């Protein structure tokens, strides 16, 4: 009953009407428990009472004054004014839009009041306009102290928020802790009830290493892992094993112009044994850019088809899907299998035909964009869904895919985003993971160079030579995140400059371009109608540009290492040597030099991701934020590495007890219950 209170709508609290509740909801404070998790980010010092001759303009200060006179001008637009004093001076308290009756109550003449607010100076006099607090002297300890500061929005001030927040924090329902005292002590944590109090009442929220903060982090991690583990349990249900003898896949492998790496073989073996087992496959292939994930997935697909099932491959963009389609047709050419391509743009007639073929089972392999999973598409006998480069998919979407596929459908994901070890479990804990750890043997390491931007002119002859040799060039401008306009204008400027040097041979892609236009330019580049592509970081992940051998990255210190590595992975995919030139603004910092060194010395995305995490810290991992991987509010893999490990171990003890109310409470607290659809019993 008491616990239910925490999950009730905030409008249950005194003082929260429809208007305030809508403001709070904008701040994602919807249920009462959301107040607990909205931590103060600083505090305001109102702890000292200042004499009026000790005021500092611009500061927030508290004063104790005698009310002398109330002044209510009858003219419009003139503010109401209360004249106050102490032994050392005078001050005006000024109100716009406040009613007379209200102010007369607040400021009884010839009585002392305590006021706190920002000090102004106007017409030779101190004043406070719309003070934060006015309170009688006997209640002064409510104000005269350090007061936690919350991120608020329009429509809510500190006083109001306190009134609401304190109804909950001061009167917190005692929750029976789901962690043992011994465990709490041993791991430098705090019990639940204290930790919430301390986070709001003491400074514990301001220090991510405080026991209370760590406790919240641990809870957040456990909730996350618990949800993933439950998701996994639900997906890995029984299915009919697939039935194949690798006839198709051996044929494919035999006809490849290269040999599979040991790593690719190992991953294919993992997948095949999943397909042959009587549990649904839910596996992700993680492999650096260019490690050859596609061919592995196509071998798996061919086994599915050999088993008499259909296969669907989904890519995030039309161009990538098309590339997969062309490749698949080429690779499966001798197998006499009907393969089709479907996107949102497929025209009506063709689409209808494809949908028919899918329904009657004639089409064995369907490749396309997310369109593949619309309701209207009914596979006759879908056996495998392959999803490429969709690291943005959350837990819920992953489980939806698995469901849509049907009870005999295996699921395989592929991602080139290298995840630091600490975060692996929190992102992919519901899946089995196969890593491709080596690159194809013939792949040349990309030469990585750095150059000060001042010497940009030295690049032109070099680029000219590249183009003459039939090579293509990427030019990456830094993304200006705050403003699509600035972003566009800086990329456009660079485009104009380069276009002057290489007229008619340059294309420009930026964030605010429509997908159609983007595709058009990408196609021009792919078909070699232009030699240079200027872009912000939006160069589509996964697309093979076999002729691009040079990438120039401007303002390279703006990017994370992992991101730079991903970017340079766009070149050197064909037979020629790939080169990456990092341009820097001016004299390189020590850190920047360190970072270039790491890039120069390693072409292992996983290693680089680890180093990136160490050097920049989690908050700075722009690449991860962009890719939607930053999925914690409190936990940080740099600051709380030990807790990530601890929670990983701890979850093994509790993952089968998810139906106990205390764990459901935990899931609900962090909004994980809906994701896996679980309710208290
Ligand atoms: P990614 O893992 O980034 O998706 P791809 O599957 O697109 O990489 O492969 C990149 C390129 O490497 C493709 O042109 C592919 O044909 C080639 N490739 C894949 N495996 C090998 C291998 N074992 N040896 C040589 N080249 C390979
Ligand atoms: Mg790929």
Task: Give a written overview of the molecule.
The chain has 25 helices and 22 strands. With 681 residues, it is of the alpha/beta class. Among the domains are: 97 residues, Beta Barrel (OB fold (Dihydrolipoamide Acetyltransferase, E2P)), CATH 2.40.50.140; 190 residues, P-loop containing nucleotide triphosphate hydrolases (Rossmann fold), CATH 3.40.50; 156 residues, 3-Layer(aba) Sandwich (Rossmann fold). The two termini are 13 Å apart. Adenosine-5'-diphosphate (ADP) binds next to helix 11.
In the CATH hierarchy, the third-tier topology of the domain at 247-436 is known as Rossmann fold
CATH hierarchy: architecture of the domain at 247-436: 3-Layer(aba) Sandwich
- Assign the CATH class of the domain at 247-436: Alpha Beta
Topology, number of strands:
22
Measured between the Cα atoms of the first and last residue, the distance is: 13 Å
CATH superfamily of the domain at 247-436: P-loop containing nucleotide triphosphate hydrolases
Overall morphology: globular
The rounded Rg comes to 31 Å
Distinct ligands? adenosine-5'-diphosphate, magnesium ion
Largest sheet: 7 strands, parallel
Low-confidence stretches: none
Content of β-strand: 15-25%
In DSSP terms (H or I, runs of 4 or more residues), the helix count works out at 25
Structural class: alpha/beta
Strand order of the largest sheet: 12-13-11-14-15-10-16
Mean pLDDT: 88
Helix content: 25-40%
Chain-wise SSE layout:
Elements: H1 2-6, H2 18-26, H3 32-37, E1 42-45, E2 49-50, E3 60-71, E4 80-86, E5 89-95, H4 100-106, E6 112-122, E7 125-129, E8 133-136, E9 146-149, H5 158-169, H6 181-186, H7 192-201, H8 211-235, H9 247-255, H10 262-276, E10 282-287, H11 293-306, E11 310-314, H12 318-331, E12 339-342, H13 348-359, E13 365-368, E14 382-388, H14 395-405, E15 410-415, H15 421-428, E16 432-436, E17 447-452, H16 459-468, E18 472-476, H17 484-501, E19 506-509, H18 515-526, E20 532-535, E21 548-553, H19 561-568, E22 579-584, H20 590-601, H21 605-616, H22 622-626, H23 641-654, H24 661-669, H25 673-676
Parallel strand pairs: 2-3, 5-7, 10-15, 10-16, 11-13, 11-14, 12-13, 14-15, 17-22, 18-20, 18-21, 19-20, 21-22
Antiparallel strand pairs: 1-9, 3-4, 3-6, 4-5, 6-7, 6-8
Helix pairs in contact: 7-8, 8-14, 8-15, 8-23, 8-24, 9-11, 10-11, 15-23, 19-21, 20-21
The structure holds adenosine-5'-diphosphate (ADP) and magnesium ion.
